[in-house]
Amino acid sequence: MSGHGKQQQLLRHPALAAGHGSGSGMGRRRYLAFLAIAAALVASYHLLHAPTPSSRYHALFLTLGSNASAAAHLRALTLRPHVAGTPANALAAEYVRATLSSLSFPTRVTPYSVLLSYPLHRLLSLSAPGRATKSFSLTQDTYPNDPYAEAAAEVVPTYFAYSGSGSVTAEVVYANYGDRKDYAYLASRGVDVAGKVVLARYGDIHCEDMVRNARDAGAAATIIYTDAKDFGGPAGKGKRKWFPNTRWLPPSGVQMGTLYYGNGDPTTPMWPSCAAGEDCERLSTEELEASEAMPGIPALPVSGRDGETIQKAMGGGVAPPEWQGGEGAPVYRIGPGPAVLNLTYIGNDTLATIENVFAVIEGKEEPDRYVIIGNHRDAWTFGAVDPNSGTAAMLEVAERLSQLEKKGWRPRRTIIVCSWDAEEFALIGSTEWAEDNIDMLASRAVAYLNVDISVFGPGGLMPRATPQLDELIKEASKMVPDPDDPSHTLYDYMIRQNPPIARVAGAGTDFAAFVQHIGVPSLDMSYGLFSEYPVYHSLYDDFVWMERFGDPLFHRHVALASVWGLIALRLADDEIIPFNYVPYASELEESSKVVEDGCPGCAVSFSPLHKSIKQLEKAATKIHMEKKVCEQKFHWKAAFTEISSYKTSTFLMTIGAASREMGPKHEGTHTEGQRDERPIDDGRASLHQRRRARGETVVQTHGE
Predict the structure, then answer these.
(1) With bands split at pLDDT 50, 70 and 90, how would you rate the model's confidence at 497?
(2) Which CATH number fits domain 116-259+294-349: 3.10.310.30, 3.50.30.30, 3.40.190.10, 1.20.140.150?
(3) Which of 396, 423, 432, 547 is an active site residue?
(4) d(C-alpha 250, C-alpha 575), whole Å
(5) 672 is a catalytic site residue
(6) 76 partner at 20 to 30 Å CA-CA among 149, 290, 362, 600?
(7) pLDDT tens across 500-514, in order?
(8) The CATH number fitting domain 3-106+362-573, selected from 3.20.20.80, 1.10.10.1320, 3.30.565.10, 3.40.630.10
C-alpha cells in the first residue's frame, strides 16, 4: 500500500473487524454481555445511592464503555511505527486531534523544537581466536504472514537515543545486569573493565544507569542484550516458543531506550523550549557535554541471540550461578576476552519538532481550576502496549465525556485532555509544557492523572499516586467490575497488593514534571503486570500482540478507562475536591523515620520535624472528619476546596535536593513537592515568562 493510502487509513476510525479476536464469536459475545450486565448492576447500585446530578452522570459514564471503540483506536494508532519527530508520529498526532475535535471539544496543537537523537550508522562484529569474524545484522526478524512486515521496514534501526558516537575495538567483559554491585564483584575477581567493551543484560536497572555505570568503571563501550532467561519464556523440553505463538520475546527481539539522564529537552534544562523559528536560549554542545547528562561512550542494544553468540566466544572465569543464563544457554564467563568486539555507532542529535495535542472541556462553576488527564503518543516502534493502549483508553474516556455533554452534563471545573510527544526520549513533551506553564499549573491545577500503558495483560489494577489521592482511588475502584473477574471489583484485587497503591516517585513517565517541578497531586495507573509484557520497546509491540495476549476482548482497556475517567469526574465535579491528607501525614512520618534511621549520630534534632508532621496529621484528621458538615454548609465549600487543593504546593522545597536529580526514568521513594530549582539568569527568566504566557492559551483559547 502506498504511503498516501497508509495516511488515509491512519486518519479514519476503522471499525473492529467482525469476528476479530480469540475464541468463538458466541462465547465472546456472551462474556461481553456478562461484563455489560455486571457494569450496569454496579453503576445502578451507586445511582440509587447517589442523589446529586453529577453522581448520576458519573454512574452513566460507567455504562458507556465500548470495547470496539478502544480496539479501533488502538488499531488506527499502531498501523505504522511512530517515533517522535517523524512524519508518522505527526499523523498520529493528527488522528488524536481529529478524534477529539469530532467530539466537539476545542483542540489545540502546541509544537516545540527539541533535541532528539537518531542513528546514522551502526556496526558490530565479533572476532576470537580460532573463529571466523562474525558481523551482526542488528535487525529484528518478522515472521511468516506478519501483517506488519511491510511497515516493519519503517521501524527505526535498533539504538539508544543520545548514545555517544565513536568506534571501539576491545576485549569483552561480562557484567551481568550492569549494576554497581556487579562491577564490585568483577573488581573482587581482579577483572579490569577499563578500556573494555562491557556486555550486560537487561533486568535490574534502566539502560541509562547501565551505560553510566559502565562508563564510570572505565569501559570504552557498552552492549546490552535481552537474555532469554528473563524475556524468552519457559524452555519446555529444552525449546522455547515465542511471539507470535506466545507472548514471549523472539530471539531477535531488541529493547530500545534512551540514555539521557534527565527530563525534558536536553538543550533547555529547567526552562521551556520554543517552536521552530522562535528564539529561545539553549545549551551549546560544549555545555551539554560538560553536564554529563549523556554518557559519552558508544552503546548499542542487541538481541538475546546476539548476546549468547558473544558469550560463546568469551573466556576467563566462569560467572557465578546468579549471573548465568537460562536453560539451553551457554556457560557464561566474565572475561576479559578472548572475544573482541568492534563496535561503531554514529548518532545524529538534532533539533526536531514535536507536537502536544490538547482538548478542553470548560468548567461551568470553576473554569479556572484544571483537572488534567494525559498520555504520551510516541513509541519506539508500533507502540500497541507502550503507550497507545493508554492513548486508546484516553480517547475512550473522551468519547464518554462527549456523550455526557450531549445529555446535559458540564463539569464544575475544567478538564484538559493531553496527548504528549517525545516521552520516550526524556519525558520531553510533558516537561516542556509544564515548564512553559509552571505558574498557571501551580495555582490552578487540581490534579494530573496519567496513564502511560493502560494494559500489560492480566494481573489487576496497579495504581500509584501521591497520598492525598489514595482514598479517591479506592472509592472509584470499588465502582468498576474487574474485567477478568466481574464478580469482584477492581478494588478487590488492588487491596490484596502490597502496597495497594504505590507512589509516583522518581521520573518513570509524564507525571514527573507535575509532581517534581510543581507539586501537583498526581497518579498513574495500569492494568496487569509488567512481567506479562516481555516485548517492551521492541518490534513486536504491535496490535497482534495486544489482540492475542494483552487484551483479546479489550475489556481491560474499558475497565481502566472507567476508573481513570471516574476519578477525573470526581475531581472535576465534586463541590469539595476529594482529597484526604491523613495518608499523606502518615507517609511523611514514615519517610522522616527512614531519614532519621539513615543518619545515626547526626548532630541534628528531628523532633521539630516529627512535631510538625503530628500537627499536620491532627489537622488533616479534623478536616476529614468535618468534611460532611462542610459539604452541607454552602459558604464553607469554596474555602474548603481552596484549603484542600493548595496543601500540596506547601511541601515544595525551593532549594536543590542534592540527593536527587530530576531524572532519569527511575522509581524512587520521595513524594511530590521535592523540587530542584536551578538558577536561571535574567534573560532566561524573561523568556520563561513569555513562553509561559504563550502556553496558557491552551486553556484560554478554545478555537482550533
Answers:
(1) confident
(2) 3.50.30.30
(3) 423
(4) 52
(5) no
(6) 362
(7) 999 997 768 999 999
(8) 3.40.630.10
